[in-house]
Specification:
By secondary structure, this protein is α/β, with parallel strands linked by helices. It folds into 2 domains: 132 residues, CoaB-like (Rossmann fold); 209 residues, 3-Layer(aba) Sandwich (L-fuculose-1-phosphate Aldolase). The chain is built from 9 helices and 17 strands. The strands form 3 sheets. An 8-stranded mixed β-sheet has the order 8-12-11-10-9-13-16-15, with helices on both faces. The longest helix has 16 residues. It binds zinc ion. The site of zinc ion has 6 residues, from loops.
Length: 355
């Protein structure tokens, strides 16, 4: 992947981290370009006092914010998360000169520190960047106004999806120590919903097979406890357009649809590969004792889909199981929503372990 640096480097920490990042990226086969507009991954300098987003020319560009800090970082999530949101970054890295430490924060509330003194400092840094540097986002939606008339008021499946979303909302699956909505100004919170599709963070999304590879899925950036309207917040996904790298959706003529959840491409891959799966629930919460992916690829990438599919392939009962997405959440499979909910109830933990 092509990478680039954007913005100034007038702090000792910035100079050092940029040098290390450039080395570590090229050691792993990525090439630097001086033109951020052609890069798939941009390291963007973010001012702690006046954070500005990098203007992505393509929505599929990943942005890593580099934040020079002049005070010691004592509460990385509290200090850095608002800047991640305001800079619309997919990850932020921050550090204070002379401390020999850098801190990383992700949209899913992951937070890590890396010591510059580690003999494998560059590798440790790259481990955290690799999921972005090696994956491909699918975020465009193509809407066709061809939803068959008999589906326009929904089906048994869409009604079960609405009920399941109410049940999940009643479980209050919120990462308790860091209530994002309280932590951020309202405007930042809306940014978060729009850019990362993880608004509410209370949980992720739901989908259920309609027939063949076609499935229903919840929209992004909407309070999932309130979904229920077909062609607006419950969308029929026809498939993935490889050429346009976009999800293709079927909506009623004259509909005003929201965008489908960013995870649609992963769910599409799973329904295709596992015809025995009828429904999927993805939540930003955890269940103890489940197998988990080893790399935390971003939501909405082909690579996240493949990692999930590989885990399901290894499962003796892929049609009725729960898999973990590292530092992110879980995805549960089953024949339908009531079956999945009955297996999650009482086992689900609001806090995702960060490793
Ligand atoms: Zn998610």
């Amino acid at each position: 992947m092509l990478f680039s640096f954007d913005g100034d480097d007038n702090s000792p920490w910035l100079k050092e981290i940029r040098k290390e990042l450039a080395h570590s990226m090229s050691e792993h086969g990525h090439q630097e370009t001086s033109n951020p507009d052609e890069a798939g991954l941009v390291f963007h300098t973010v001012s702690p006092t006046r954070p500005r987003p990098f203007r992505r020319r393509s929505q599929a560009t990943f942005v890593i914010g580099l934040i020079p800090w002049d005070q010691p970082i004592t509460q990385p999530l509290k200090q850095l998360y608002p800047l991640l949101v305001r800079s619309l970054a997919n990850l932020v890295i921050s550090g204070t000169p002379g401390t020999g430490m850098s801190y990383l924060v992700t949209p899913e509330l992951g937070n890590y520190s890396v010591s510059h003194d580690l003999p494998d400092f560059r590798d440790a840094l790259y481990d955290r960047i690799a999921p972005l540097a090696t994956s491909h986002l699918v975020i465009d939606n193509l809407f066709d106004n061809d939803l068959p008339e008999e589906l326009r008021d929904g089906t048994q499946v869409t009604r079960e999806m609405r009920d399941a979303s109410r049940t999940l909302a009643s479980w209050n699956l919120f990462p308790t120590p860091y209530p994002v909505a309280d932590m951020l100004p309202a405007e930042d919170y809306r940014h978060l919903q729009r850019v990362f599709g993880i608004g509410g963070l209370s949980y992720g999304n739901l989908s259920a097979r309609h027939e063949g590879e076609v499935f229903w899925m919840s929209a992004s950036g909407v309070d999932k406890g309130k979904i229920g309207t077909v062609s607006r917040d419950i969308l029929l996904v026809k498939g993935f357009d490889e050429e346009k790298r976009a999800m293709r959706l079927s909506v009623a003529p004259g509909a005003d649809p929201l965008r489908v959840s960013v995870d649609a491409v992963e769910h599409w891959g799973i329904y295709r590969k596992h015809p025995e799966i009828g429904a999927l629930i993805h939540v930003h919460a955890w269940v103890d004792g489940i197998p988990s992916t080893t790399i935390n690829y971003p939501c909405g990438t082909v690579e996240m889909g493949n990692a999930m599919s590989d885990l399901l392939d290894q499962d003796p009962h892929p049609e009725r199981t729960i898999i973990g997405l590292r530092n992110h959440g879980i995805t549960a499979t089953g024949p339908n929503f009531p079956d999945i909910l009955s297996r999650l109830e009482g086992r689900i933990l609001a806090q995702v372990p960060m490793v």
